[in-house]
Design goal:
By secondary structure, the protein is α/β, with parallel strands linked by helices. The chain has 9 helices and 18 strands. The strands form 3 sheets. A 9-stranded mixed β-sheet has the order 17-16-15-14-8-13-12-9-18. Strands 1, 2, 3, 4, 5, 6 and 7 form a 7-stranded mixed β-sheet that branches. Strand 2 and strand 3 form a beta hairpin. The relative contact order is 0.16.
């Protein structure tokens, strides 16, 4: 067995997502399983280099997990010829500049989304990466979740017949920060720092819809800030300048219509924090992060509207669970493994910076739609 080492500069791992999902549950999890089996007796061993601005936080993380390398000097890490891959999980406003530096340094890049603050910047990164001849990928974790993998299985198997509509509900109550600490960083609620639920979630909805049901061809959205005053990590009040809720309607290639509500000002009355209901001529399904339930047309009851009598049956009990039929790994880890195989084995991989640009495009058009009270066509992107 031959062990090959890949050195990955991981920028932003002191943040919640960068630490929990990408460092601990992805890269360190790959190490715990003995590396990534490339076949033919080769194993790829990821060696993370922790990068960030806070020296004490990086040192503490490295000591906690027995890692040797960390740095507050991104330029030096990128200039090091031993660095193979650059990963970015920073705040949105800092991402494009760092990715540009990494691409110019000849590093393969893998990044959280959105990839840039606007479509022009996102397309510029994709073109730059293509011209540099490096491998590039964008995190699109939702399609690797068990619930959505089961939903894709249903789509691919023709369960729905003609798909008519998709309804999505996402969100939860994010505490304001005065009497209970907020469970999301305060920058998420400041537009000047790259915050806002549209730029955060519309890129997710773009690839979920695109991968499962078809390309988004138009968008109409209403965007708002329901909670205008919040308190930051130091207990100081601030004005929330970014949107915390968005209500979008998306037309899809093929004729289906998707309506997705996204909110950090909603209390959860559903089984999971995100759920998608898909209705088709032959059947329907409701999928969350992990579970998926179906109702085939042959098993669909015939409800009759009668508000004078209580419901005689539980509507939820009339649906059947979709079995796992497989073991599902962590979605972030699964995509990391695919990207690393793409880098080292040239295996097919299409979740690249152009795919990331489509997410930025949809967010940009969604914000314009709300601001101008118009429905916008979504042009197909190319380089």
């Amino acid at each position: 067995m031959t062990r090959r080492t890949v050195r990955i500069a991981m920028n932003g791992v002191t943040g919640r997502m960068g630490y929990r999902q990408h460092l601990v549950r992805s890269i360190l999890a790959i190490r715990e399983q003995g590396g990534l089996d490339l076949g033919g007796g080769d194993v790829l061993w990821p060696e993370p280099i922790l990068v960030g601005r806070r020296e004490h936080a990086l040192r503490e993380l490295a000591e906690r997990h027995g890692l040797d390398e960390w740095s507050t000097d991104l330029d030096a890490v990128l200039a090091d010829g031993r660095t193979d891959v650059y990963f970015d999980a920073q705040v949105t406003s800092a991402r494009a500049d760092a990715l540009t530096k990494a691409i110019d340094a000849g590093k393969h890049v893998y990044t959280e989304k959105p990839t840039a603050a606007d479509l022009a910047g996102a397309l510029g990164l994709a073109r730059r990466a293509r011209e540099a001849g490096i491998r590039h990928g964008v995190v699109q974790d939702k399609i690797f979740l068990p619930g959505l993998l089961k939903l894709k299985r249903l789509v691919d198997g023709g369960f729905f017949g003609e798909i008519l509509s998709v309804r999505g509900e996402f969100g939860y109550w994010v505490f304001e920060g005065d009497w209970q600490d907020a469970q999301r960083p305060s920058w998420n609620y400041r537009a000047q720092d790259g915050g806002g639920i549209v730029v955060d979630m519309f890129p997710h909805w773009e690839y979920v819809l695109h991968e499962l049901f078809g390309r988004v061809t138009s968008v109409s959205a209403h965007v708002t800030t329901h909670v205008p005053r919040r308190w930051d990590e130091n207990g100081k009040p601030y004005t929330a300048t970014a949107d915390d809720a968005a209500y979008g309607i998306f037309e899809l290639e093929g004729g289906a219509v998707a309506q997705i509500n996204s909110s950090w000002a909603v209390r959860v009355h559903r089984d999971e924090l995100v759920e998608f209901q898909v209705d088709g001529t032959h059947g329907s399904a409701v999928a969350g992060l992990r579970e998926c339930r179906v109702q085939h047309r042959s098993m669909t009851p015939k409800p009759v509207w009668n508000p004078d009598l209580p419901a005689a049956h539980s509507f939820r009990d009339q649906w059947q669970p979709v079995p796992d039929n497989a073991e599902f790994d962590n979605g972030f880890k699964a995509q990391w493994e695919l990207f690393l195989r793409h880098v080292y084995l040239d295996e097919p991989y299409h979740w690249d910076l152009l795919a990331g640009a489509r997410g930025v495009q949809l967010a940009e058009l969604g914000l314009r739609s709300s601001a101008e009270g118009r429905r916008f066509e979504v042009p197909e992107l190319s380089l």
